[in-house]
Amino acid sequence: MLAPRQHHKRTIPRTKMASLADDHVHSAGRMQAYSDAIFSIVATIMILPVAHTEIPEDKNLREVIFYRLLPKILIYILTFFVVAISWTAHVWLFQIVRRADDVTTLLNLFIMMIITFLPFTFTLMGTFPEYVLAIVLFSVCIIVLGVAQALVVLHVFRNPQIMEESIKNSENKVAVRNALLLRVLVNPILCTLAAVFSPASNVISYIFLVMILFSPNIAVQLSKLISKCSGSVQVSQEVIRRGKSYEMEVNKERVECYSDGVFAIVATLIILDICEKDIPSVADLEIKYKNDLAAALNHDSSVFLAYFGTFATVGLLWYIHHSLYHHLKRTSRLMAMFNNFSLAMIGGMPLAFQLTSMYKDTDFYNNERVAIQLSCVIIFLASISQLAIFVTALFRPDQDLTDSARVGGRSHYYLLVKLLVYPTVSMTIYVISLTSDVLSVEAFHVAQLGTPVLFFILWLIVIQIQRNVQDVLNPEENSTQEGSNNEEQALLTAPPENIAC
Amino acid sequence: MLAPRQHHKRTIPRTKMASLADDHVHSAGRMQAYSDAIFSIVATIMILPVAHTEIPEDKNLREVIFYRLLPKILIYILTFFVVAISWTAHVWLFQIVRRADDVTTLLNLFIMMIITFLPFTFTLMGTFPEYVLAIVLFSVCIIVLGVAQALVVLHVFRNPQIMEESIKNSENKVAVRNALLLRVLVNPILCTLAAVFSPASNVISYIFLVMILFSPNIAVQLSKLISKCSGSVQVSQEVIRRGKSYEMEVNKERVECYSDGVFAIVATLIILDICEKDIPSVADLEIKYKNDLAAALNHDSSVFLAYFGTFATVGLLWYIHHSLYHHLKRTSRLMAMFNNFSLAMIGGMPLAFQLTSMYKDTDFYNNERVAIQLSCVIIFLASISQLAIFVTALFRPDQDLTDSARVGGRSHYYLLVKLLVYPTVSMTIYVISLTSDVLSVEAFHVAQLGTPVLFFILWLIVIQIQRNVQDVLNPEENSTQEGSNNEEQALLTAPPENIAC
């Protein structure tokens, strides 16, 4: 009965076979992009519980920050890093997947579900650190996560057609698979121990949980140990090298994707609050404002100024991030850490928005200035860690930077100026707010709105210089690429002062 | 003074020139991805004001839905479409940009700022349709948007090195530019008229605002008219054709990017509510629950079940969308419209989550069942419009579909089954909820969690059949691509019943 079908199938030409492969095995690109989006949003969205903390206007904001906000902020930053780390692991794991079939996609969706739930269990643990249940819940999340990832590894190695070429063709596939499995299962093991010991002593279980941060190294050491015992040194070396290279080089495009997600969600979280709170209800308009919509909106005017100011800052920090990563060749783990910290701070912008927009008419204890100062600190930390990425890259220019961004390179100074703008501006405002009382929230937001204009003027100067020199040079070459580039270079080798002023 | 520098520059080899071009002119890819993310999040995040509407547990939910939720839901859907339309225009406009320089990037950021603010002005207009100020504010937004887009067009045409090749090399550049400018400035003109007439009569200004939906066609007609007057018919034809083709074919990858954004934000908005509301405060735990964390969490247990159920649904709808778009070659305007509607419905999932998770112990007026029914309607509409995309594509298979997805194609039936699962499931649950009282919210969420298992079983059957037939066929060919594909085909040409059961 099967014979004829068999025969029929045998006659299918190879070209058709190839197209057949595409029917159910899709390129993994979209799955990864989707995961990046979820990871970044989950990491950032945790700022809202902080931003939505009830702050009575008549309390001293400095005290509120220290006693009520700070613990929450710390939990937010920790959560952000937990998510960022699991994202790195996810990227690293899915580097073995060249094309995603249905099982991989469904498993990935399951992993996403756990990841999205992770912040809850982590926040719970952060709020009630002494409770066994909290520790156990978080551990269970990590264990399930690890098991799901292990299933992905097993599935991929059972279906070579969806596997990354480099691994598919490596002669010691099994060793690679075991190394991957080990890496993926270290966290579950640590969490199992943490969960088991939590009734006895929280301290021990937290020690195990902290060890998760070093799980990559632990995995490498373990696989080294195992291969020593089994004696197959050469293989283990290969595996460890691969393992390391996986760790170190999180694909640059993926980092950009992840960062874009954070910037995008931050930009939109701000407007969300406005749409929820600042659209007056029909009843309010009738009773409070006697149907005068202008008056109703005018009452929240400071909010809109705050919105445009904050958006401008977030947008420009993205723009700087964009220019910076355009000149990076790769991201080391240290640079990734700086990037994550910068993103975590940018995630704090909704909080800055909340605080700077809530103090309008009445002002006790100089709360207005405290709010401005906190915003300045957030912006400063976000921008300075972007600068730190560039500085780190400068230590290994050959590996990390494009030619033009290196010292003496064409865009070196221009990029440096861009990276220096926000640290300088935020620092200046902070100092002013310390010394004088003139600085109001409105002034702060106007300053925020002014900064992009600064960038724009900077660019206009660039253009103008180009045009002038160009005309002097050779009018017929106008608006051709070589022409404009010559001048670009003439300009960019000039010291930053000339550009900035 | 310039001479030596000039001389110096002339000696730069052409290879360096090329690299110079890359210094400040980046590939437009990342800017577009960032914009897609913002657009999709802005469109979706507007559901939260709806989802966060205060609903007293002791009121009749059916009445609450009709008198309090429905108007908000309508505004949400309209906002979603307004944002989606401006996104289409944005994609269409930026097709002329091959690579983004700093000015384009900054202008794009400014456009993003207006886009993010658009929902506020629109919601304001939706809440107070009779107020002149509301109409004027919305109009001003659109006008500023149009002007910014016009600036992008002018900038790009002044800097050919960042322009798309096809336009750069077309002999009637000027005509194309004018057509683009016309297209971009139609909306501002309409809005100016709307704003001007709003004091006289709202009706007239709303007529003008509705015309925005047809602005592409208006632009085409106008450019036709103008070119008629100027007599250059041939050019106008070329321009119109291009204009049309721009409209019709919004790049498939961009649609996927945009959709991913919506799915991702929806998936994470759900957990946000849990993290904000369902982590008990230290005080509550002490007083209410006598430091019994388990009891505190158990009190919200239904919320967690609701979360996992909703996430499973959103995730799988993404997975179906993913499989569907993998088999689409292009998206016509009609398909884009269906996709937008599907996404708008998926954006409604947080509302479904809210309603199905709020009714636990007490239940008045069968509110529990009403909540389930609303969720079913949302899921049904979301999934049926995905099916509608596929059906639309089937009308022009040669243009729209890959070979394997067409009627009689290898994955035609399998894809159809995938697309039919959710309409069937949601419909069934809805009918059950009408007939019997047994259906509880818990049962509904368990059903939601069951659906992915259904998909998984389906896939396992596929694999199993493959394996079996394969073994019979030729054992040595196991786990090689041709082998598995033969069977894939054998299976996929089988009727859907065989696969589904």
UniProtKB/TrEMBL annotation, chains A, B:
Keyword Nucleotide-binding: no
Bilayer-spanning residue ranges: 33-53, 73-94, 106-125, 131-157, 203-220, 302-320, 341-359, 371-395, 415-432, 444-463
One GO cellular component, as annotated: membrane
UniProt keyword Magnesium, yes or no: no
Region Disordered: start-end pairs: 476-501
Molecular-function annotations in GO: potassium channel activity; proton channel activity
Protein name (database record): Endosomal/lysosomal proton channel TMEM175
Annotated gene: LOC109478282
